[in-house]
């Protein structure tokens, strides 16, 4: 009986390990890992997508010191800004008061070079960007401008 049990043990051990190697049981594990990676990528992308796009307004601060307002979406490593506005400083000089600086909100597109209303900004040129609240003075000014210029 000991001979039979030791033979049965060696047969079951060789069958289980041989079968594991021969049947390609690694395939399901690899597929499971790939599915997990794909789900993680979709989850991560959807989290980023929730931060940008849609009807929210964002402000983008560039490393050059320029600031732009608009709707942000992503295209790979590029940030795409549409309905673009920026601030232009106008110094008002009066003799009786110290000079003050006023800002005009300018819609992209009326410049000499005639750009379209979309900017493609490489990720390396972005210092940071923020979502703006709906009660922001800039957002209210943009929405007022858009209503008047439909």
Brief synopsis:
This protein is α+β, with helices and mostly antiparallel strands and 150 residues long. It has helices spanning 2-22, 26-51, 137-148, and strands at residues 58-62, 67-75, 78-92, 100-107, 118-122, 126-131.
Q: What is the architecture of the largest domain at the second tier of CATH?
A: Roll
SSE pattern, N- to C-terminal: HHEEEEEEH
Major sheet, described briefly? 6 strands, antiparallel
Number of domains: 2
Percent strand equals 25-35%
In CATH, the topology of the largest domain is named SH3 type barrels
Q: What's the oligomerization state?
A: single chain
Structure summary, number of beta strands: 6
Shape: elongated
Low-confidence stretches: 46-50
On the 0 to 100 scale, the average pLDDT is 77
Helix fraction?
25-40%
Mind telling me the C-alpha Rg? 30 Å
How would you characterize this protein structure?
The chain is α+β, with helices and mostly antiparallel strands. The chain has two domains: 2-50; 53-148, SH3 type barrels (Roll). Helices cover 39% and strands 32% of the residues. It contains three helices and six strands, in the order H-H-E-E-E-E-E-E-H. It has helices at 2-22, 26-51, 137-148; strands at residues 58-62, 67-75, 78-92, 100-107, 118-122, 126-131. Strands 1, 2, 3, 4, 5 and 6 form a six-stranded antiparallel β-sheet that branches. A hairpin with a 7-residue loop joins strand 3 and strand 4. The radius of gyration is 30 Å and the shape is elongated. Mean pLDDT is 77; it is low at 46-50.
